[in-house]
TrEMBL record:
Protein name as it appears in the record: Methionine aminotransferase
MF terms (GO), sorted A to Z: kynurenine-oxoglutarate transaminase activity; pyridoxal phosphate binding
Taxonomic superkingdom: Bacteria
Organism: Flavobacterium degerlachei
InterPro entries the record matches: Aminotransferase_I/II_large, Kynurenine-oxoglutarate_AT, PyrdxlP-dep_Trfase, PyrdxlP-dep_Trfase_major, PyrdxlP-dep_Trfase_small
Cofactor (UniProt): pyridoxal 5'-phosphate
């Protein structure tokens, strides 16, 4: 008897496997293919010969916790207690899983805004709780009236993803005001804010849940060094939570991983002394704009991209096929892999949109665009 009977192989795995089989350019999975900062790899090379290979404390390497506190204060003005309000995790997915397992109980309800990343629903189901999927508007703004209507005494958590994967939307001040009104009306609801792309926003500045003082006592914010420093394979993230919630999250965390990779933690701690996270968005904005320029003569219509390193595109001028079939044909006939947006919806809502990852070197983007413009 399966605990997750409706969950199969991830669409990311399927598309990447097909991309490899057909030797297609892989713009499906969200990982960069350009080199990591040499300053970071030099730090790793030096540390590899030092005594940094044994278990670190369960919550994280103490100097790294302190530097995360400084990073959050510099970015958002929030003052944290490193020893009790920060946890280093084995990637953001593990942070989300541990949080939901720790705080969500049998028969609780968790509101998930679709299109949503696939790591939200599984831990809810494994907690014997009920995921409540609410679709964003077709322009990917939240419908706060609908969200409020589904809030009840059973609602334990609302999950937001900002900047949003897969759409690239960011929440506005008005969105946070609406969310705050709902949460003040329902004081038992916990907010889980997935902000792994927080340092990759463009024309508008990212607004973090860290800045909402009235919500901090019941808010968990998840971040990712993997996304921020394009080291996704390291699987190192962190979460921030008030101490009373963090105590429960740590109970689960210690039995999932106990402590996170020691070499990675020490390396990131040293790297934070010499890198500026403020430089990151400019680099990705150049890539977004370049990819957009390359596709200007294609038949794809690019949707607004306000953050993340994903570009959503409509293919409605090209085909009436459903988005899964279109993405498969894109690989087999045209040699480019993308992700169908319908797979981010619980009900499979299909608007004939697909997602490209532009976190690639210029040569890869140019080769992919040449193929896409020929369709």
């Amino acid at each position: 008897m399966s605990k997750l009977p409706n969950i199969g192989t991830s669409i990311f795995t399927i598309m990447s496997k097909m991309a490899a089989e057909y030797n297609a350019i892989n713009l499906s999975q969200g990982f960069p293919n350009f080199p990591v900062d040499e300053r970071l790899t030099d730090i790793v090379a030096t540390l590899a010969k030092k005594e940094v290979h044994q278990y670190l404390p369960m919550a994280g390497y103490a100097p790294l916790l302190s530097k995360i506190a400084v990073l959050v204060q510099d970015s958002y003005g929030r003052i944290l207690k490193p020893e009790s309000e920060i946890l280093v995790t084995a990637g953001a997915t593990q942070a989300i899983f541990a949080t939901i397992q720790a705080l969500v109980d049998t028969d609780d309800e968790v509101i998930i805004l679709d299109p949503s990343y696939d790591c939200y629903e599984a831990p809810v189901l494994l907690s014997n709780a009920k995921p409540i999927h609410i679709a964003l508007n077709d322009d990917y703004t939240p419908n706060w009236e609908t969200i409020e209507k589904v809030c009840t005494s059973k609602t334990k958590m609302i999950i937001i993803n900002n900047p949003h994967n897969p759409t690239g939307k960011i929440l506005t001040e008005m969105d946070f005001e609406a969310l705050q009104k709902i949460l003040l009306k329902f004081p038992e609801i916990i907010l889980l804010s997935d902000e792994v792309y927080e340092y990759i926003t463009f024309e508008e500045k990212h607004i973090s849940a860290h800045t909402r003082s009235q919500l901090l006592n019941r808010c968990i914010v998840v971040s990712s060094f993997g996304k921020t420093f394009h080291i996704t394979g390291w699987k190192v993230g962190y979460l921030v939570a008030p101490e009373h919630l963090m105590k429960e999250i740590k109970k689960v965390h210690q039995f999932l991983v106990f402590s996170v990779n020691s070499l990675s933690q020490v390396a990131i701690s040293e790297y934070l002394d010499i890198v500026s996270v403020q430089e990151i968005s400019g680099m990705y904005q150049e890539k977004r704009d370049y990819f957009s320029h390359l596709l200007k003569n294609s038949r794809f219509k690019l949707m607004p991209c306000e953050g993340t390193y994903f570009q959503v595109a409509s293919y409605s001028a090209i085909s009436n096929e459903n988005d899964v079939d279109f993405c498969k044909k894109l690989i087999t006939k045209h040699g480019v892999a993308a992700i169908p947006i319908s797979t981010f919806y619980a009900d499979g809502k299909d608007l004939r949109l697909i997602r490209f990852c532009f976190a690639k070197d210029n040569s890869t983007l140019e080769q992919a665009a040449k193929k896409l413009c020929s369709i």
